[in-house]
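Need a sequence for this fold. Nothing fancy.
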Protein backbone atom coordinates (compact mmCIF):
# COMPACT_ATOMS: atom_id res chain seq x y z
CA UNK A 1 0.00 0.00 0.00
CA UNK A 2 1.07 3.57 -0.69
CA UNK A 3 0.79 4.66 2.95
CA UNK A 4 3.03 1.87 4.22
CA UNK A 5 5.88 2.88 1.90
CA UNK A 6 5.59 6.53 2.81
CA UNK A 7 5.56 5.76 6.52
CA UNK A 8 8.81 3.87 6.18
CA UNK A 9 10.41 6.72 4.25
CA UNK A 10 9.16 9.25 6.80
CA UNK A 11 10.58 7.43 9.81
CA UNK A 12 13.91 6.87 8.09
CA UNK A 13 14.01 10.55 7.19
CA UNK A 14 13.06 11.53 10.74
CA UNK A 15 15.90 9.44 12.11
CA UNK A 16 18.33 11.08 9.68
CA UNK A 17 17.13 14.58 10.62
CA UNK A 18 17.50 13.86 14.32
CA UNK A 19 21.01 12.55 13.69
CA UNK A 20 21.97 15.72 11.82
CA UNK A 21 20.47 17.87 14.59
CA UNK A 22 22.50 15.98 17.20
CA UNK A 23 25.65 16.42 15.12
CA UNK A 24 25.08 20.18 14.85
CA UNK A 25 24.60 20.37 18.62
CA UNK A 26 27.84 18.49 19.23
CA UNK A 27 29.77 20.72 16.82
CA UNK A 28 28.38 23.85 18.47
CA UNK A 29 29.29 22.47 21.89
CA UNK A 30 32.85 21.66 20.85
CA UNK A 31 33.22 25.00 19.11
CA UNK A 32 31.86 26.80 22.16
CA UNK A 33 29.55 28.96 20.10
CA UNK A 34 26.03 28.60 18.74
CA UNK A 35 25.80 30.71 15.59
CA UNK A 36 22.80 32.07 13.69
CA UNK A 37 23.53 29.60 10.93
CA UNK A 38 23.33 26.73 13.42
CA UNK A 39 19.93 28.00 14.51
CA UNK A 40 18.71 28.30 10.93
CA UNK A 41 19.84 24.77 10.14
CA UNK A 42 18.10 23.37 13.22
CA UNK A 43 14.97 25.37 12.37
CA UNK A 44 15.04 23.96 8.86
CA UNK A 45 15.32 20.41 10.19
CA UNK A 46 12.42 20.98 12.58
CA UNK A 47 10.05 22.38 9.97
CA UNK A 48 11.08 19.64 7.53
CA UNK A 49 10.04 17.04 10.09
CA UNK A 50 6.79 18.86 10.87
CA UNK A 51 5.80 19.49 7.26
CA UNK A 52 6.68 15.90 6.41
CA UNK A 53 4.36 14.66 9.15
CA UNK A 54 1.49 16.75 7.77
CA UNK A 55 2.06 15.49 4.23
CA UNK A 56 2.32 11.90 5.43
CA UNK A 57 -0.94 12.16 7.37
CA UNK A 58 -2.64 13.60 4.29
CA UNK A 59 -1.29 10.86 2.04
CA UNK A 60 -2.47 8.25 4.55
CA UNK A 61 -6.03 9.58 4.23
CA UNK A 62 -5.76 9.55 0.44
CA UNK A 63 -4.45 5.98 0.57
CA UNK A 64 -7.37 4.94 2.76
CA UNK A 65 -9.82 6.80 0.46
CA UNK A 66 -11.16 8.53 3.54
CA UNK A 67 -11.81 12.28 3.32
CA UNK A 68 -9.58 12.48 0.26
CA UNK A 69 -10.06 16.28 -0.17
CA UNK A 70 -8.79 16.80 3.38
CA UNK A 71 -5.82 14.56 2.63
CA UNK A 72 -4.82 16.51 -0.47
CA UNK A 73 -5.40 19.80 1.39
CA UNK A 74 -2.96 18.61 4.06
CA UNK A 75 -0.37 17.79 1.40
CA UNK A 76 -0.82 21.19 -0.25
CA UNK A 77 -0.60 23.08 3.04
CA UNK A 78 2.37 20.98 4.12
CA UNK A 79 4.34 21.78 0.98
CA UNK A 80 3.23 25.41 0.78
CA UNK A 81 3.78 26.10 4.46
CA UNK A 82 7.18 24.47 4.32
CA UNK A 83 8.22 26.70 1.41
CA UNK A 84 7.04 29.86 3.18
CA UNK A 85 8.73 29.04 6.49
CA UNK A 86 11.93 27.98 4.76
CA UNK A 87 12.06 31.30 2.93
CA UNK A 88 11.43 33.25 6.13
CA UNK A 89 14.15 31.37 8.02
CA UNK A 90 16.86 31.97 5.43
CA UNK A 91 15.88 35.54 4.46
CA UNK A 92 14.56 38.53 6.36
CA UNK A 93 12.47 36.80 8.98
CA UNK A 94 8.81 37.84 8.94
CA UNK A 95 6.83 36.84 12.00
CA UNK A 96 3.38 36.91 10.42
CA UNK A 97 3.96 34.64 7.39
CA UNK A 98 5.98 32.21 9.51
CA UNK A 99 3.47 32.02 12.37
CA UNK A 100 0.52 31.75 9.99
CA UNK A 101 2.15 28.88 8.10
CA UNK A 102 3.06 27.14 11.35
CA UNK A 103 -0.51 27.52 12.60
CA UNK A 104 -2.01 26.06 9.42
CA UNK A 105 0.42 23.14 9.52
CA UNK A 106 -0.60 22.41 13.10
CA UNK A 107 -4.31 22.64 12.31
CA UNK A 108 -4.08 20.27 9.33
CA UNK A 109 -1.96 17.88 11.41
CA UNK A 110 -4.64 17.81 14.12
CA UNK A 111 -7.49 17.34 11.65
CA UNK A 112 -5.81 14.53 9.71
CA UNK A 113 -4.40 12.62 12.66
CA UNK A 114 -7.74 12.79 14.48
CA UNK A 115 -9.33 11.19 11.43
CA UNK A 116 -6.65 8.51 11.27
CA UNK A 117 -7.17 7.76 14.96
CA UNK A 118 -10.95 7.44 14.54
CA UNK A 119 -11.77 3.77 15.18
CA UNK A 120 -15.54 3.84 15.67
CA UNK A 121 -18.19 5.21 13.34
CA UNK A 122 -20.24 6.24 16.37
CA UNK A 123 -17.60 8.90 17.08
CA UNK A 124 -18.13 10.65 13.74
CA UNK A 125 -20.09 13.49 15.44
CA UNK A 126 -17.18 14.04 17.83
CA UNK A 127 -14.75 14.26 14.92
CA UNK A 128 -17.07 16.69 13.14
CA UNK A 129 -17.20 18.81 16.32
CA UNK A 130 -13.39 18.74 16.40
CA UNK A 131 -13.18 20.05 12.83
CA UNK A 132 -15.77 22.76 13.53
CA UNK A 133 -13.91 23.88 16.66
CA UNK A 134 -10.63 23.95 14.74
CA UNK A 135 -12.21 26.12 12.06
CA UNK A 136 -13.77 28.48 14.59
CA UNK A 137 -10.43 28.82 16.36
CA UNK A 138 -8.18 29.09 13.31
CA UNK A 139 -9.99 31.81 11.33
CA UNK A 140 -9.97 34.48 14.07
CA UNK A 141 -6.45 33.50 15.14
CA UNK A 142 -5.14 34.17 11.63
CA UNK A 143 -7.01 37.47 11.67
CA UNK A 144 -5.39 38.43 14.98
CA UNK A 145 -1.94 37.51 13.65
CA UNK A 146 -2.31 39.95 10.77
CA UNK A 147 -4.21 42.64 12.73
CA UNK A 148 -2.49 42.91 16.10
CA UNK A 149 -4.80 45.64 17.42
CA UNK A 150 -7.98 43.71 16.66
CA UNK A 151 -8.25 41.73 19.88
CA UNK A 152 -8.99 42.42 23.55
CA UNK A 153 -8.83 40.40 26.74
CA UNK A 154 -12.39 39.10 26.50
CA UNK A 155 -11.91 38.06 22.89
CA UNK A 156 -8.64 36.31 23.77
CA UNK A 157 -10.36 34.36 26.56
CA UNK A 158 -13.13 33.17 24.24
CA UNK A 159 -10.63 32.20 21.54
CA UNK A 160 -8.43 30.41 24.08
CA UNK A 161 -11.46 28.44 25.30
CA UNK A 162 -12.27 27.34 21.75
CA UNK A 163 -8.68 26.15 21.26
CA UNK A 164 -8.85 24.18 24.51
CA UNK A 165 -12.09 22.51 23.40
CA UNK A 166 -10.54 21.70 20.01
CA UNK A 167 -7.58 20.09 21.76
CA UNK A 168 -9.89 18.19 24.11
CA UNK A 169 -11.93 16.80 21.23
CA UNK A 170 -8.73 15.64 19.52
CA UNK A 171 -7.72 13.65 22.61
CA UNK A 172 -11.22 12.25 23.08
CA UNK A 173 -11.32 10.72 19.59
CA UNK A 174 -8.72 7.98 20.31
CA UNK A 175 -9.53 7.72 24.03
CA UNK A 176 -13.25 7.04 23.52
CA UNK A 177 -12.41 4.87 20.53
CA UNK A 178 -10.65 2.47 22.90
CA UNK A 179 -13.68 2.07 25.16
CA UNK A 180 -15.83 0.24 22.65
CA UNK A 181 -15.70 -3.47 22.14
CA UNK A 182 -15.76 -3.05 18.38
CA UNK A 183 -12.62 -0.97 18.22
CA UNK A 184 -9.77 -2.29 16.12
CA UNK A 185 -6.14 -2.07 17.13
CA UNK A 186 -3.97 0.18 14.94
CA UNK A 187 -2.16 -2.89 13.57
CA UNK A 188 -5.38 -4.42 12.21
CA UNK A 189 -7.08 -3.47 8.95
CA UNK A 190 -10.01 -4.95 7.08
CA UNK A 191 -8.91 -6.35 3.71
CA UNK A 192 -12.24 -7.81 2.58
CA UNK A 193 -15.22 -9.94 3.47
CA UNK A 194 -15.91 -13.45 2.26
CA UNK A 195 -16.70 -15.55 0.45
CA UNK A 196 -13.95 -14.85 -2.04
CA UNK A 197 -10.22 -14.84 -2.60
CA UNK A 198 -8.00 -11.91 -1.65
CA UNK A 199 -4.37 -11.10 -2.23
CA UNK A 200 -2.79 -9.26 0.71
CA UNK A 201 0.61 -7.59 0.77
CA UNK A 202 1.99 -7.31 4.30
CA UNK A 203 4.46 -4.68 5.42
CA UNK A 204 7.30 -5.35 7.85
CA UNK A 205 5.87 -6.09 11.27
CA UNK A 206 2.28 -6.64 10.07
CA UNK A 207 0.36 -9.83 10.80
CA UNK A 208 -2.58 -11.30 8.94
CA UNK A 209 -5.38 -12.11 11.38
CA UNK A 210 -8.36 -14.05 10.06
CA UNK A 211 -11.42 -14.30 12.27
CA UNK A 212 -15.10 -14.92 11.77
CA UNK A 213 -17.70 -12.34 12.78
CA UNK A 214 -20.28 -15.07 13.33
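Here you go.
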Amino acid sequence: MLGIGFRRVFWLGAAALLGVAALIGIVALVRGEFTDTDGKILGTLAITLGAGAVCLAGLALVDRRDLVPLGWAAVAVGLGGYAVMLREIWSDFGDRPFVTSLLLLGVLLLATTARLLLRRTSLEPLYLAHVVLLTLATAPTVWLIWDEGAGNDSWAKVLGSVWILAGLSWFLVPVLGRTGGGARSPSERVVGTGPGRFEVELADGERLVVRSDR
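For context: The helical segments are 2-31, 36-64, 68-90, 95-116, 124-146, 153-177.
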